[in-house]
Amino acid sequence: MYLVSACLAGINCKYDGENNYNEDIMELVKKGEAILICPEQLGGLATPRFPSEVSMQNGERKVINNHGEDVTKNYERGAQEALELGKRLNIKKAILKAKSPSCGCGLIYDGTFSKKKIEGNGVTAQLLLDNGFEVFNEENFKKGIIKKNSSSHY
């Protein structure tokens, strides 16, 4: 059983109101092997919403939208809700949307809104990793390539 970014199953919960439908993910949903989550919505953000990226500000990791608003607390709340759901359902694996400020694992956008990617994890991916989850993305889950607990807190 996996926690799965809902956008990967065709749910229109991306920041722009669209989705990132993935046929292989939908097969997991049809088989009952996936519980869908959208950490941004769980954190109280609306859909659509302004795009956001993770950045370092004064030595702290923040999530800032492209209008300069700090939405870190929403992202942290959504990550905590996803973790709690996983714990309640005894799920220890997740397939999360690559490069997302919530779900990205291994690579995320650099916080400049220039489409430049850097090493790092989104808020939800990092919290799940810190709590012993195996975290995949839609690009590597079928290959069994996982991101194990990482010290990257960016």
Jot down its keywords:
154 residues, alpha/beta, two-stranded antiparallel sheet, 8 strands, 25% strand
Overview in brief:
The chain is α/β, with parallel strands linked by helices and 154 residues long.
Assign an overall shape.
globular
Radius of gyration: 14 Å
Count of individual helical segments? 4
Number-wise, the strands total: 8
Element order: H for helix, E for strand:
EHEHEEHEEEHE
Domain tally:
1
- Unreliable parts: 149-154
Major sheet attributes:
4 strands, parallel
What percentage of the residues does DSSP assign to strands (E)? 15-25%
Strand order of the largest sheet: 2-1-5-8
Distance between the termini: 27 Å
Helix/sheet category: alpha/beta
Give the rounded overall mean pLDDT: 92
Determine the fraction of residues in helical runs and give it as a percent range: 10-25%
